[in-house]
Structures are given as C-alpha cells and as structure tokens.
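Structure (tokenized):
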C-alpha cells in the first residue's frame, strides 16, 4: 500500500525531508515550528524557488513582509499566529530559515546573541532540521545523502562551489538524469549555463513569466537556440509549440521524453497540447490530453453503473474496463493526477478477480486454510482500492464500486463459515492455541492486526533484513478484546464468564474482578512475565516467560474513522515495524507479534440486522450476549469463557447497528483468523570501512575493517558502474588488506573511487582518490 515515492527534484526532496522532521508520533503534540539553521548561507540562493513550493517558509532578516523576511520578533509572532495579515491553516507548521545562524549558537542559551535569544525556546517547542549526526544540513550533505537526493558527487572544492552556483537551477531540475554517475564541477556548470530542452518546456508551461525573467538579451538567445535546435521560433506562440510537440519527431521527441520525466514542473504544457491537432493517423495518442480526459469521463460513467448490476456481471464488467483503460496508466497524465479513476481501476480489477468466487470448504479448518492461502488477498485489494483515491468525487465512485464487488463476496463467504462453526463449534476451539513464554521472547500485542495487514508487515520487516515465520490461529468468540486478549497472553490464570458480564470481560477467580488489562497486568510478575512500557526495550528487563509490550492504534482508529482507516494503515504498520526494530536493538532475539481479533470493513456501511433489545444484554455492532433462555432469530454461539452462555451474532456481513463501516465481534474469517507471527534477527549485514589508502606510483594498497570474509576491492571511475574499473580485476581482501595495480599510466593524476564490494558485488564503502597521489 504505498506508499512513499522517490523525489524527482531537489525541492521535492526538501519538502519530504521537512515533512519527516515535523511528523509527530500519535499522541505527541505537533511542533510549533521547524527551525532551519544555515551558518554558511549555502541555501540562500534557493529561497526564491522554495517560496512558490512552501508558502509557510519565512526568513530571518530585514523587515520585508512581502518577501516573507523579518526580524526575530516578527518570526515569533508568525509562530504564535499573532499577525492578522498572515493566516496559517491549523495543520500547517511554519518553517523558519535562519541564514548565517549556527544551531550550536541557539543551543548556547543565555550565551546566545541577544538578537536571537527569543528563538532559543523554539528548539524545545519546535524541531530543528538537521542530519542524523546532529550537524546542520549542508548542501553537499543533502545532495549526497540517501535521505536527500543520494547523488554521487566528487568531493573536491571545485565541485562543491559549482554545486552551490547551480543550486537555483537544480531546484526544479529532474534528478533522474543526474543519478547513476559521478558528478563533477563541469556537470553542475553545464546546468547553470542553460539547457535548451528544459528552457523550451519552461517557456511552453508559462510563456509570459519566462519571457519577463529572461530580459531582451536572453530572450533573443533563447529564440536563436530554438530555431537551431528545434526548427521553431518561440515568437510563433505556445500553441505552435504544442502542435510541434504533438506531431514532431527528432528533437521534439527529446522534449516529450523530458516532459514525461517530470511533468509536474511543466504543468502548462498540457494547455499548449490541448489545442493541437494530429496531422496524420500515426500520432501517439498518449500525447493528447483530451484523449485521457475522454477516457476518464467514459470510465466514470461506466463505473457509476456497476452498483446496479448483479455481482458476477459487475466483476466481469470491471475486468473488461481494465482491459480497455489499463494502457492509460502508462501515460504521462497519471503523474499529473489527471487519471485518478484509471489508477484506481487497477486495484478494482484485482478486487474483482478475487471477489468472483466466495471461499468454500467442508470444515472450519479447511476454510481457514483457504483464507490464509489466498482469501485475505480480497480484503487487501479492497483496502488498496479505497486508498488509491484522494479527492472526494472520485473517491465516492470507487467506494461504491468497491462495495458492489466486495460486500456480496464477504457476505456469502461469511455465511458459509458461520454455518460450519455452528455445525461443530469444537472445530473452531481446536484451532485456538495458547501461547507459552520463555526468556528469549518478547510478545508484542497489536490490537486489531488483521491477517491481510500481517502480510504487509512481513514485507516491511523482511526488507529490513529480519526473518519472519507466519502461522495462524483462530480467536475466541466473541471476537472482541475483552474476551480474546487474555487468551493470547502466556499466563496461567483461571477465569470464568458470568451472565451479564460487562463488555464480555471474564472474571478472575482469584479476586472476582473483571479481567481488564490493568487487572491482568498486576499478575504479570507472579506469572514470570514483564510489561515493557512504550519507551522500554531492554532484554534485561524480561522475566522467566519473557516480556509483553503493546503498540499501535489500529482498532481505535477503525472505530473512530470507519472506511477512512485505510488512510492511516501505512503509518500504523510503520510504527509496528519501528517498535519491533527497537525491541531487537534492545537485545531480544525473538519477537512474537500477537493480536486479539480482526475486523470487517464495508465501505458505505453494513446491512442492518434487527435484534430486539429485550432478548439480549450487552450489545455491540457484531455481537450481543443473549438473556437467559431467549432465542433470537440470528445465529448464536457459545461464549469462550462459559459455553452455557450464548452470544448472538449477525448473519453474514451484517451489523446490529446502522451505518457501521468498521466492526468486529462477530463470526467471520476476517474477525476470527488472526496471524501468529514470529520475528527474529536476520543474518548480520556485512559491514566494511576503508581505514587507509596508500599509493606507490600506480600500486594502491587498501586497508579495510570488516565483520565478514570474501570481500573484494576495486578502483573505478564511476562508483556504480563495474565496467569503469581501472584494474584487471577486483582483488580479494586478505587479512584486511589488498593491493591493486593500475595497468595504464595515462590514468595517473586522475580522479577515481576505491570501492569495497560484498559477495554480490554491492558497494559497502568507498573513498574518492587521486591516482598515484601520496597524500
């Protein structure tokens, strides 16, 4: 579910970095401001480009409100939202840029210059934008860091100076052409002196603005370049350029490819193309914005008809629409957000494929096995469809289609599962496993971790180098926290269920009190289990049965937000991943992720099932406790903690309350089948550090510190290209050292890179060198 995209420009990368810096964990107050210190004023030339992209950016300097610049007292008023002429939305956090100010100066407190002292306290109410090592972000650091642009830049004074000169141009320059090669001073200078394709696109996007910025001299030069390079005079106007871009070949194909790399930078080009007419039958229709607009309109009309169709017909229709419109997902208009329904159609088609046939089986276990094998993919598909749309209008259409495809599949599958559970409740209880703790295991409880979300969690964990083992089990009935959580704890507690128990809590036989979380936690120590608070991770704090920790708010958000929960799933899963990594770092060899129940989510709401109040006591959307000998006209099941007490549950995917989009407590595969996930340390990643590089004419001796064997050393002109090697073959490290010889003396004095490679050829460390240099 995606999720995060690679930035296409420097401005995009900065915005992403700012957003990451100000992002607060759930329950933590948002920062009052983001402080950006720049002691060397390296970033100052970038401010004009950032103003358009970041309207909440303000600068410390002389009082010029029109330029968003002012003294400290003015900046403080902005942070406190005390200026009536500057109105910031509540969810927007101001960014305060401080040219010429070092972060260490602000940290000096009373020793800080009096002019800046009013800003000192903002370090504590706000956040400071800095590197992980605590240093201010320099331009060079941001350009080369994986948290910035991740470019390979030669580290010499000339290149650093050229990069600073090119900063205003680099602001909106597509990054892709700069990646994958070592950048030197001339690469940045080439950006500064002009790029005909970029300039032509910038003019087509905003003709008047481009011409006013250029001045008479540069405008004349631009015209001459266009005549020579593109056989076109800009005086003919953007409409003529649009016609050439649609129908032209040769250099105009280069212009189109460049536009497709970063169309967000040249949004006005679509307007120039909109009036262009194809001159023959062989024009690429993907270049015609009107074709895409017609496709979106046709698709919207077709999708609006889906909800009135029979289920099988609806599924087939969506698959046919995907065949018809799927090619548009490769068109450039997707990147401009102009093909929202076409993008959502991909997830809808996946949902249609899975939803065509309800799950079957002759036993509870067979159905559970089928769900674990592939049935959960249908649940994941509906979540992906719902999260694919950002605007309300298209979101409504997609939600209606999602419901039309998913709800009949969910209802039929659930009714069949309910019939099997009712036929033989022991089949279900046999799949409820008790947990057993040990010193090496930390149990991590996640309320409402549905099985499909466990699949996403595993993908993220394994990408971090952790090992996972996934199994499943069934959760006790009713599928609510009060009943099910206790059954997942590695404790030996005797409980009993009493009629009329509030919220389905069993009673502890030891004291006759409801087995709430706080009551159970009091028994942890005597049962050999330790509770870890949110900030604790130490393996040394564990008991004989290990430890218990809790993380996440999936269930809480589901009850609060309904179908809008999908917008928060990625952040919640990322939080679980972070907690697992934190516990691993604390010394735990094994994390067992457990949950109490899943849930069902139906966009637009579940069908309401009538249940008279006089027949039941405690009643939730998907479960109710039956009063005495009452016989409600809905399925009933024995309570896990007392089989003599009956729990009523709505048939299929229904709800006892109207309008519920999210609920649990009932009997469905989504609520009952929960993940049993074990996470363990992966193999330690190979590490290497170049300690020294010594040259003896063309012989290079490299000393490396590493935690593994089988590493090799190479010398290349381009870090990421093996074919740029200057030696006959990479040499294997022996006793932490290797000697390499440059075969051709013509390379003496040239720049190169010493690279340490793992067994798979991946670079573990590198160092820029001058061939033959003794220092």
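Design, position by position:
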């Amino acid at each position: 579910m995606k999720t995060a995209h690679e930035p296409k420009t420097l401005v995009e990368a900065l915005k992403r970095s700012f957003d990451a810096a100000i992002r607060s964990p759930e329950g933590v107050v948002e920062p009052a401001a983001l402080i950006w210190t720049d002691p060397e004023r390296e970033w100052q030339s970038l401010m004009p480009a950032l103003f358009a992209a970041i309207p909440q950016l303000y600068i410390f300097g002389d009082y010029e409100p029109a330029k968003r610049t002012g003294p400290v007292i003015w900046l403080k008023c902005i942070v406190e939202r005390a200026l009536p002429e500057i109105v910031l939305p509540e969810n927007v956090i101001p960014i305060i840029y401080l040219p010429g100010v070092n972060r260490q100066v602000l940290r000096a407190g009373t020793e800080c210059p009096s002019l800046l002292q009013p800003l000192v306290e903002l370090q504590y109410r706000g956040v400071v934008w800095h590197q992980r090592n605590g240093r201010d972000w320099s331009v060079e650091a941001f350009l080369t860091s994986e948290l910035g642009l991740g470019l390979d830049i030669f580290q010499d004074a000339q290149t650093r100076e050229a990069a600073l000169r090119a900063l205003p141009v680099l602001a909106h320059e597509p990054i892709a052409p700069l990646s994958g090669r070592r950048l030197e001073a001339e690469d940045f200078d080439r950006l500064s002196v002009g790029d005909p394709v970029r300039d032509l696109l910038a003019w087509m996007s905003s003709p008047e603005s481009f011409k006013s910025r250029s001045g008479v001299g540069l405008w004349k030069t631009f015209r001459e370049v266009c005549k020579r390079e593109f056989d076109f005079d800009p005086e003919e106007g953007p409409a003529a350029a649009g016609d050439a871009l649609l129908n032209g070949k040769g250099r105009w194909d280069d212009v189109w490819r460049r536009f497709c790399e970063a169309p967000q930078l040249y949004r006005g080009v679509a307007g120039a193309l909109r009036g262009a007419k194809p001159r023959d039958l062989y024009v690429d229709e993907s270049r015609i914005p009107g074709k895409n607009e017609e496709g979106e309109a046709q698709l919207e009309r077709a999708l609006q008809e889906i909800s009135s169709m029979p289920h099988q017909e609806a599924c087939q229709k969506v698959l046919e629409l995907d065949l018809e419109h799927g090619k548009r997902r490769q068109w450039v208009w997707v990147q401009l957000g102009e093909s929202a329904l076409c993008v959502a159609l991909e997830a809808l088609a996946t949902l249609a494929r899975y939803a065509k046939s309800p799950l079957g089986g002759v036993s509870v276990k067979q159905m559970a096995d089928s769900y674990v094998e592939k049935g959960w993919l249908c649940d994941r598909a509906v979540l992906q469809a719902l999260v694919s749309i950002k605007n309300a209008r298209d979101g409504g259409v997609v939600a209606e289609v999602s419901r039309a495809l998913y709800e009949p599949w969910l209802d039929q599958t659930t009714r069949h599962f309910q019939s099997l559970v009712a036929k033989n409740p022991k089949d279900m209880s046999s799949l409820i496993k008790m947990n057993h703790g040990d010193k090496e295991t930390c149990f991590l409880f996640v309320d409402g971790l549905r099985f499909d979300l466990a699949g996403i969690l595993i993908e993220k964990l394994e990408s971090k180098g952790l090992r996972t083992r996934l199994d499943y089990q069934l959760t006790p009935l009713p599928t609510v926290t009060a009943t099910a959580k206790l059954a997942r704890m590695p404790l030996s507690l005797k409980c009993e269920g009493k009629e009329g128990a509030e919220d389905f809590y069993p009673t502890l036989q030891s004291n006759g009190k409801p087995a709430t979380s706080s009551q159970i936690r009091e028994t942890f120590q005597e049962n050999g289990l330790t509770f870890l608070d949110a900030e604790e991770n130490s393996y040394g704090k564990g008991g004989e049965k290990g430890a218990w920790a809790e993380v996440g708010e999936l269930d809480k958000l589901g009850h609060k937000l309904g179908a809008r929960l999908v917008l928060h799933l990625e952040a919640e899963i990322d939080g679980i991943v972070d907690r697992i990594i934190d516990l691993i770092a604390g010394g735990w060899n094994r994390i067992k992720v457990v949950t109490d129940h899943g849930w069902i989510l139906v966009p637009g709401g579940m069908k309401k099932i009538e249940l008279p109040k006089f027949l039941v006591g405690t009643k939730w959307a998907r479960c109710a406790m039956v009063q005495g000998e009452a016989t409600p006209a809905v399925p009933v099941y024995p309570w896990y903690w007392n089989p003599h007490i009956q729990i009523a549950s709505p048939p299929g995917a229904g709800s006892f309350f109207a309008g519920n989009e999210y609920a649990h407590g009932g009997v469905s595969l989504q609520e009952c089948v929960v993940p049993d996930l074990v996470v363990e340390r992966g193999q330690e990643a190979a590490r290497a550090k170049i300690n020294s590089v010594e040259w003896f004419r063309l012989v290079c001796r490299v000393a490396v510190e590493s935690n593994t064997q089988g590493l090799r050393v190479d010398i290349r002109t381009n870090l990421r290209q093996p074919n740029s090697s200057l030696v006959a073959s990479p040499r294997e490290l022996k006793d932490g050292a290797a000697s390499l010889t440059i075969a051709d003396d013509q390379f003496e004095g040239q720049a190169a890179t010493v690279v340490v490679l793992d067994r798979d050829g991946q670079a573990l460390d590198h160092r820029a060198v001058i061939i033959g240099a003794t220092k």
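Reviewer-requested clarification: The chain has five domains: 10-191, 196-287, 290-426, 433-680, 688-770. Residues 10-191 form one domain.
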